[in-house]
Amino acid sequence: MEFERLEAPYLAPDAKVARVMQQVLLALVPAALAHVWFFGPGLIFNLLIAAAACAAGEALMMRLRGRPPLRALSDYSALVTAALLAFALPSLTPWWVTATAGLFAIIVAKHLYGGLGFNIFNPAMAGYVVVLVAFPMHLNLWVAPRMGDIDYQFLTTLQTLKYTLTGVLPDALGYDQVSRATPLDAMKAGLNDMRTPGEIRSLPIMGDFGGVGWEWIGNFIAIGGFWLMIRRVIRWHIPLGVGAGLLVPAGIMWLISPGTEPSPGFHMFSGAAMLCAFFIATDPVSAAASPKGRLIYGAGIGFLIYAIRTWGADVDGVAYAVLLMNMAVPAIDRITRPRIVGHTKEEKAS
Amino acid sequence: MWPAILTLTVLALAAGLGLGFAARKLPADRSELVGRVNDLLPQTQCAQCGYPGCRPYAAAIVEDNEAINLCPPGGNDTVQRLADLLGRTGSPPLATGPAAPAVAVIDESLCIGCTYCRAACPVDAIVGAHQFMHTVIEQECTGCELCVAPCPVDCITMVTT
Amino acid sequence: MSGPAATYDLGKLHGGLRLPARKSESTALPIQAAPVPEQLFLPIDQHAGEPAQPVVGIGEYVLKGQLLAEPATMLGAPVHASSSGTVVAVEPWPVASRHGDAAPCIVIECDGEDRAGEPREKAAPYTELPANAVLQQILRGGIVGLGGAAYPTAQKLMHAASCELDYLVLNGAECEPYISCDDMLMRERAGAVVSGAQILLHALALDTGYIVVESDKPEALRALAAAMSAVGDERLALKQIPTIYPSGGEDQLVQLVTGREVPAGGLPTDAGCLVQNVGTAAAIHDWLQDGEPLISRITTITGDGIATPMNVMARIGTPVADIAQFAGGYTGGAKHLVIGGPMTGRSVSTDRVPLVKATNCILVLSELPAGGPELPCIRCGDCAAVCPVQLQPQQLAWYARADNEGELRRHGLTDCIECGCCDLVCPSHIPLTHEFRVAKARIRELDDEKARAERARRRYEARNERLQREQRKREEELARQKERARKAGPDAIAEILKRSQRDED
After folding, report:
1. CA B40 from chain center: how many Å?
2. Residue of C363, C423, C355, C362 whose CA lies nearest to C387
3. I need a surface site. Which of A99, B121, C204, C490 has the fewest CB within 10 A?
């Protein structure tokens, strides 16, 4: 009898890129729910617009490159980029800002570099930075959580939708009525005014250790991240690296001078630091390859977040930190090549 | 704005001058480089590049900035490797196409034992005494074709391997 | 040494995978004796090294166990007749080692009587023979490694005898899914395995031997423990290792059992260990104690394309088709035939290929579930996490596609054992092992080219030196003549000129 020839191995592999991405999205759901609870439905609209923009960008680029669009869309990686953008951008964002971020992330940062697996820079962060520079006003409009401030107008769903579609605040509301400084903004401004973190922490926007609402979201992100680690979708090296890189310098400076430095807990739970540790920095394509390399990569990001927040102009340094470390990845990979079994350490260094 | 532009211009000029100085006054160790270029060449010693052997060609590449695409037996792979080693960008493809690997074969029935081919072989791959039959040692033949022309009875053919 | 053995964690293996065993189907029945087929096809190159040279002619009648082919070079093993019959041809026939393409085989038409030759006169027990004589005897038995690589055992032992060894390690791990022939051998013939171990200890003058079994084989462990306590040899110990693929690889086994790493490009003997498959040990016992050369072996025939998966004791040279028929025939969906295991086996195009010394498994599979299209590498790092040699398959694949030979070497491509673990975990379904095989072939090609170029360069330089030497000699000779002429004076020169003119006329 004749048979058909195959290449070894003859067992069916069961890992799939799509499943990896789907689990990442699943892990974001609790955090998304908390976000909507505290800050309103803006996140949902942003997600829809970003997803549409990313999917459109992906389909367009695959067509231009002469490939079937469905192959790229079916691995869900564009959707993950869209989700991260939705979390990173303020919940009150006009649709064109979100769409620009999504299109830039997919078209330029991902496909112009070669598509899935070839991008050097984290697409979501690249998209975010572009709109941060191009639409600085819109990216400073942060919704405050429900906190009983009588001057504050928490927008309804319809009002949020109207703003998202038109960019104009409905019902003659003013910007000061619908937005507040983020905890990071407040901390930075307060420190500049020579107030102590203790005093700043008494502001209504501050919660127990982070900001109101942001703490809960941070917790849910961490839970989602740990779930991903247990499922072995991500490995522990990058989150630990980012955490250590951020908390160690913050902790040391806080111990030295608690009157002028926010606590390490504040750093970790505000801005996108938690999201970065578990979801942004762990993007495997733009991260380092070896376990030791990933620790160094994560630590670099954490330290840069601290450095930019403390000494830099940007309020939340996550995006720039990630992009800077992306640039360092080839060098990190070269230095941290693991020792091959059967070789000595000296042989490895060539 | 103007101070910034001026600063950057001055920095760029300084960097450019520094690099140019380093390139001219601090050359790399030439003889070691010749050895490394020679190692990349296929050692066919066929003289198709115009030089009497691979090492002279290597020396010319390093010292006289000779073109790196003159070696047909090396193929485009060698052109690329030389470009990578010497940092020469825009390496053009071979001037002539790469030759298929071949060995010389002497037709023993025609050989008259004149030893002209033996003298021509740059790697001494032909054995045979005067007025006795000659033969090519197949494992050592590099396919350079230098033996084909001197043979007065045209008994040498190149057979592709 | 009785009772279950403790687990030793002297060494740890990086990576590896826990694979579904799929061995229960083929271990349900005891070893079945397959009948002698009508025709036996015996390839002359069933071993690593050069093919053996036939010493019988067409039409010759041969007896079971008769020598059919002798090794031609230092590295080779003899081939014996697996049954009695007439040699009808020495011709190309499909073989598994070439995926179904043909290689020269000695074809025997069996007469069905299975007549053996004159029993060898009882040689002295091996314990009285010097080690070298034992090795020579092993060579004559056609014994090769039965774990799959078929390296001629005698030559391996002779090389090992010249190394500093500390341990004998008998490999009963059998870590690949589906394969269970070593398991059944240990269950039913533990005594032969232990006896083989003792012969090996004697032949190499070693005093520590480990028989290593994976922990998913409790019956085999019990049988071996009982056999070892019956013999009471203090030098032997039984060890369990965790059931992780590929802990049965030579280098990996040495690492697990002794904690030592085999140096890159080296052999287990460089780490002081001699590793031998349990089947090889039993074959050594059969030859030295019972006079039967390597003419049969236990093979697992299994897979969802076979009606009755089982282990068979079959004669070397039996066509796979005959064994499949004995095992109940093919099921309706049988589509792929693999000789060897699901990770390291070879897929062949026809079942006419014969069972050879290296055949430890015949795997008949139905349609494999489609893995999906191949996506680009997402640098997830799962491949590096499972690689037992601590390579970075994602980097190797990148450089293999870029044909970057330097980086491939630097990242250890030649250390890859082609176990296939990285393939199974890759979410992008990149055929990594296949890429590495191709890249390794390319590197071998480049190495060959470099060696040739080096030789040509040396000959060129030697030739230049020779020409220069000859030139110098000529110049010296000329200078000497000039000097002589000058010393002789102007008259002598005129004399020479006159003489030469006279010659011309």
Report:
1. 8
2. C423
3. C490
Beta strands in C188-277 (DSSP E): 209-214, 236-241, 273-277
Per-residue confidence (pLDDT) for residue B96, from 0 to 100? 64
C225-263 pLDDT tens trace = 999 999 988 999 999 998 999 999 999 999 998 888 899
- Touch test B–C: 3 Cβ pairs or more under 8 Å: yes
Q: Which residues, in sequence order, are CB contacts of A292 under 8 Å at separation 6+?
A: A336, A338
- Tell me the torsion sign for CA atoms C110, C114, C117, C121: positive
Does the predicted interface ipTM exceed a cut of 0.95? no
Composition of chain B by helix, strand, coil, percent to 5? 40, 10, 55
3-state secondary structure of C109: strand
Q: A12 contacts in C (CB within 8 Å)?
A: 368-369, 371
pTM for the structure as a whole: 0.81
Task: Tell me the residue ranges of DSSP E strands in C102-176.
Answer: 102-110, 167-172
Mean pLDDT across A237-251: 95
Strands C336-339 and C346-348: antiparallel
Give residue-wise pLDDT tens across range A170-206: 777 777 777 777 888 888 888 888 888 877 877 777 7
State both tokens at C404. 């970057």
Q: What is the dihedral of CA A216, A221, A226, A230, to 10 degrees?
A: 130
Tokens standing for residue C401: 């596609």
| Touching, C vs A (3+ Cβ pairs under 8 A) | yes
Position A313 pLDDT exceeds 70: yes
* Rounded Cα distance, A152 and A140, in Å: 17
CA–CA distance, A87 with A101 (Å, rounded to integer): 12
* pLDDT one-digit tens code per residue, C52-88: 899 998 999 999 999 999 988 888 899 999 999 999 9
A341 close to C (CB below 8 A): yes
Q: How far apart are CA C377 and CA C393, in angstroms?
A: 10
In chain A, the residue whose alpha carbon lies closest to the alpha carbon of C99 is A5
